[in-house]
Design a protein that fits this description.
Layout: H1 2-5, H2 18-28, H3 32-39, H4 44-53, H5 61-70, H6 74-83, H7 91-98, H8 104-120, H9 127-139, H10 145-161, H11 164-178, H12 183-196
Helix pairs in contact: 2-4, 3-4, 4-6, 6-8, 7-8, 8-10, 9-11, 10-11, 10-12, 11-12
């Protein structure tokens, strides 16, 4: 996983393919207590399984924070945000808090969660996403690889999947980031701008 996907985990891995984890999760169904127990094993595949069987409506902010503190690779971060956390009523509050954090994968989770909310929110006002763009721009000055990629993903997701006004706002943010003196912000802005202008 490290060589091919850049997924490095401090905890144990078993080598179970993702397709098999998803198949097991489908067989088990949603079970929040099981998810919490499997997460505690610290096994990479167990944590992936936990994400798929956890019940989003039963997630507490405390549990989301505890899981975020355990994040040690982008694969777990992105799967948690894409398949579970963005369905939680605490999603926006956690995203806003996490993008301000120092820990690399918690900070990435903040940006990834904004991206997932943009991708999965089918209707509703632009206001939360306009506010998110301001937050993204303010917190984008991080040169770490997984964080700057998260910044780009969040800007692109807002610009590509939302209203024309949000696309214009996302392009404007990406352009300002691309002109930044900070290398992380500049990279994220240029990356987002390329996608948004296609």
């Amino acid at each position: 996983m490290a060589k091919r996907y850049g997924i490095v985990t401090a905890d144990r891995t078993l080598g179970v393919p993702m397709a098999q984890i998803q198949k097991i999760a489908k067989t088990l169904g949603r079970d929040h207590a099981l998810a919490a127990a499997v997460w505690r094993t610290r096994v990479y595949e167990g944590r992936m399984l936990a994400i798929y069987v956890a019940e989003p409506e039963r997630l507490t902010a405390t549990q989301m924070e505890a899981w975020a503190r355990d994040f040690d690779n982008w694969g777990i971060v992105d799967t948690a945000c894409f398949k579970l956390f963005d369905q939680s009523p605490h999603a926006w509050a956690m995203a806003r808090a996490w993008v301000k954090r120092e820990e690399e994968f918690v900070k990435r989770a903040g940006f990834a969660l904004i991206a997932c909310l943009a991708l999965h929110t089918k209707s509703g006002p632009d206001a939360p996403f306009l506010a998110a763009l301001k937050l993204i721009e303010r917190e984008a000055k991080d040169e770490r690889n997984f964080v700057k990629k998260g910044v780009s993903w969040a800007v692109r997701a807002i610009g590509q999947k939302k209203s024309p006004a949000l696309k214009a706002a996302a392009v404007a943010v990406a352009a300002r980031l691309a002109a930044s003196e900070n290398t992380g912000a500049r990279w994220a802005g240029k990356d987002a701008l390329r996608a948004l202008r296609r």
